[in-house]
Design brief:
Layout lengths: L2 H9 L9 H4 E5 L4 E3 L7 E2 L2 H6 L8 H11 L8 H7 L8 H6 L4 H9 L10 E5 L7 E2 L8 H10 L30 H17 L2 E5 L7 H13 L8 E5 L6 H11 L5 E6 L4 H7 E2 L3 H13 L5 E8 L7 H18 L2 E8 L13 H18 L5 H16 L10 H19 L3 H4 L1 H8 L2
Parallel strand pairs: 1-4, 4-6, 6-7, 7-8, 8-10, 10-11
Antiparallel strand pairs: 1-2, 2-3, 5-9
């Protein structure tokens, strides 16, 4: 069934805002005790008292249950604005509530829609981060999700004069994201393991592990040890998906491969969205050649059965994004030889809003939009339908959408913050914006 037909016939016949992710999918940051139904809505706090008697409350929170009620009534939960903004483009634009729902059976969709909204549901797909340990400090990330970012703020102080950064990404070390020290028991992690050992390992279709960088977390290896010794108890066919920046030392990469080699349903998720020095500027700590090599050898060694590259679409990546996507097409040809398939997703950044693609002036957005349209025309035959949809919706987004999210500052303020941030970033990280991004750099110089 085509994505638009699924939306019209399977979702909108229930309600115009129904999304199965609110019942069956979760992203949970166990290090800080925060959860959300997917990576788009802002996370909220898990109740420590609830999880003492109900470990599933790391997902089944009061806030999610209220949002389920809203969806059953056809109301749009405010936190799901990412999807509403995409759908309001028109043009049959496909939002992520379609992709987050179509992976479930008709019965699962019906059970969610017809359920008492107060009922606890076992997850089908779960993304967890055990902690924020990470050796990268990507420009659009922040100390809440990266220890390298936290150390940067601690050592060099906060970024200054960012008027539009209402979430204070870059003003402090976000110590609340790491309330439990290495020698302390984290009740959120322990609640996960209680739920995992009682029910989750029997009900999940996919367990996805993110970070930080999972390879740097002791809890990844604790979980992989459990899977190695008791994996026969897991739901048949369950996928283990792991996000990785593929920037760890080779000894760690090799250990990772050895743990997962032979596991039939391992999916590797990695991230990049630009080429060479531009990628390294956006993702501080990245060695682009090393990333490319590690990705290729994951494919050659047939460790994952599938590889997914997640592009975070920010203003800077648009300069070389089409060239990068050509690289993914090249990897697709390599997969015909080595086995594991590969695809990409284009995930449009909204926060921090001054790094959104919409901060760019009309002439640059139009130029990059046309570059993407040319890529799509030349490569459509090599792409999955989902990849075509993601590429087309980015083209439409650059053409139609004017603000990154509700309440965002006007473009002039975002542009001032853009200059203020990257001016400081260059000095702190010893980088050179104008040299690295010659096309955007001409505009940047005049800000």
């Amino acid at each position: 069934m085509k994505d638009i037909d699924f939306k019209n016939k399977k979702l909108d016949t229930k309600s115009a805002s129904f999304c199965a992710a609110k019942w069956y999918n979760a992203t949970i940051w166990l290090g800080s005790g925060m959860t959300t139904s997917c990576h788009h809505p802002l996370p909220h706090k898990i109740d420590l008292e609830e999880i003492k008697t109900n470990p599933s409350a790391i997902h089944n929170t009061k806030q999610k249950k209220e949002q389920r009620r809203q969806m059953q009534c056809g109301d749009r939960p405010a936190g799901c604005e990412y999807c509403w903004k995409i759908e309001d483009i028109g043009r049959d634009a496909i939002s992520d509530r379609v992709y987050k729902s179509k992976i479930y059976t008709d019965k699962e969709l019906d059970d969610a829609y017809q359920s008492d909204f107060q009922k606890d549901f076992n997850l089908r797909t779960l993304e967890i981060a055990f902690d924020r340990v990470c050796q990268f400090a990507c420009t659009y990330c922040n100390p809440a999700f990266s220890t390298t970012w936290a150390n940067n703020i601690k050592n060099q102080g906060p970024y200054m004069n960012l008027m539009s950064d209402g979430r204070n990404h870059f003003t402090h070390a976000h110590d609340s994201a790491e309330p439990y020290k290495k020698d302390e028991i984290n009740p959120y992690v322990e609640a996960f393991y209680k739920w995992w050992e009682s029910d989750l390992h029997k009900t999940l279709d996919e367990l996805r592990i993110t970070g930080g960088e999972p390879m740097m977390s002791p809890n990844l290896w604790r979980l992989l040890d459990w899977i190695e010794t008791q994996g026969d108890k897991m739901k048949p066919g369950m996928r283990i998906a792991i996000n990785s920046n593929l920037g760890a030392k080779q000894t760690i990469i090799n250990r990772f491969k050895n743990k997962l080699n032979g596991f039939k349903n391992f999916h590797l998720y990695t991230s990049c969205e630009a080429i060479g020095k531009q990628a390294e500027y956006i993702r501080d700590g990245l060695d682009y050649s090393q990333w490319h090599s590690n990705l290729l050898h994951m494919m050659i060694d047939k460790v994952p059965s599938e590889i997914h590259n997640m592009c975070t679409i920010n203003a800077l990546c648009l300069e070389s994004l089409p060239e990068f996507l050509e690289k993914i097409v090249w990897f697709k040809t390599a997969s015909a030889i080595y086995g594991p398939t590969i695809n990409y997703t284009l995930n449009i950044l909204r926060f921090p809003s001054f790094q959104s693609p919409l901060v760019l002036p009309d002439d640059l957005r139009n130029r990059f939009k046309e570059d993407l349209a040319k890529f799509l025309k030349n490569n459509e035959k090599f792409l999955e339908q989902m990849e075509i949809n993601h590429t087309q919706r980015l083209i439409d987004y650059l053409d139609v959408v004017k603000t990154p999210h509700a309440g965002a500052a006007e473009q002039s303020k975002l542009q001032k913050d853009f200059k203020a941030f990257y001016s400081q970033y260059d000095k702190r990280q010893e980088k050179n914006f104008e040299k690295t991004f010659p096309i955007i750099g001409e505009w940047y110089r005049g800000l």
